[in-house]
């Protein structure tokens, strides 16, 4: 299965910039793995059959939750594409049910970037694309939002 953008490119259209959902989607999974490891380590330091079994059970439950969160974060990143071509902005999410947003670069009125302090440090944020006479589209938690904005707003010399 190829990328969505490759399936919809028009003749003469080239991908100028691609980005994805930021790796911060893995943070809940990372935290859950840390909790699972902590419960496992705790089970090795305590004495008593019941408390050891309880710690191992909590480690197992935490590991199952961590596995679930890891899979859902990976799946979200795998099924999300955000691209800028020489003709339009394209954002796609979903696998079986697909949501897409496409806007011609000629119709883009403004592009706003919203970054929190952690977003500035880790280089992720939200981008709001506003079109002429159209609604606005918010693309959340993408990697390198300033580079994405620059790819949309940069115009070749002479145009």
Question: What are the main properties of this structure?
Answer:
three-stranded antiparallel beta sheet; PH-domain like; 2 domains; alpha+beta; elongated; four-stranded antiparallel beta sheet; 5 helices; 159 residues
**Average predicted confidence as pLDDT:** 90
What form results from the Cα inertia axes?
elongated
CATH architecture of the largest domain: Roll
Proportion of helical residues: 40-55%
How far do the termini sit from each other?
36 Å
List low-confidence stretches. none
Fold-level CATH name of the largest domain: PH-domain like
Please outline the major beta sheet: 4 strands, antiparallel
CATH class of the largest domain: Mainly Beta
SSE order, one letter for each helix or strand:
HEHHEEEEHEEH
Structural class: alpha+beta
With helices defined by DSSP (H or I, 4 residues minimum), what is the helix count? 5
Strand content: 25-35%
* Count of structural domains: 2
Strands of the widest sheet, in order across it, are 1-2-3-4
The radius of gyration over CA amounts to 21 Å
Q: What's the total count of β strands?
A: 7
Verbal overview:
- By secondary structure, this protein is of the alpha+beta class.
- It has two domains: 14-21 and 82-153, PH-domain like, CATH 2.30.29; 26-75.
- The protein is 43% helix and 28% strand.
- The chain has five helices and seven strands; from the N terminus they run αβααββββαββα.
- A four-stranded antiparallel β-sheet has the order 1-2-3-4.
- β6 (124-131) and β7 form a beta hairpin.
- α2 (27-45) runs antiparallel to α3.
- It is elongated, with a radius of gyration of 21 Å.
